[in-house]
């Protein structure tokens, strides 16, 4: 981002100095300055739009990746909970069976 700002600032300064030192009448020089500034502004807008689109795309990619990882973690936790539930059920059944044997 700093690179682009520096690039555009350097371009603007160079174009302005070049236009100011060009051999032309004041009105022509002022018109050239305005045109150059408008061109630079349009180029800056286009670059910012490009960077904004790229940033939104990256944000979308990260969002999808996070959702996928959260879903995987949730699925893993559910599987472990199911496994634990089955183990607790088996242990409870074994304890109940042993208790019946001891008490009868």
Gyration radius, to the nearest Å? Answer: 35 Å
- Indicate how many domains the architecture comprises: 1
Distance between the termini: 81 Å
Portion in strands: under 5%
- Helicity, as a percent range: over 70%
The mean pLDDT is 86
Encode the helix/strand succession as letters.
HH
With helices defined by DSSP (H or I, 4 residues minimum), what is the helix count?
2
Structural class: mainly alpha
Which consecutive residue ranges, at least 5 long each, have pLDDT under 50? none
Shape: rod-shaped
Note the main sheet: none
- Beta strand count: 0
Could you write a compact summary of the structure shown?
By secondary structure, this protein is mostly helical.
Tell me what the structure shows.
This protein is mainly alpha-helical and 104 residues long. The longest helix is centred in the middle third of the chain and has 78 residues, at 26-103. The protein has one domain. The chain is built from two helices and no strands. It is rod-shaped and about 115 Å long. The mean pLDDT is 86.
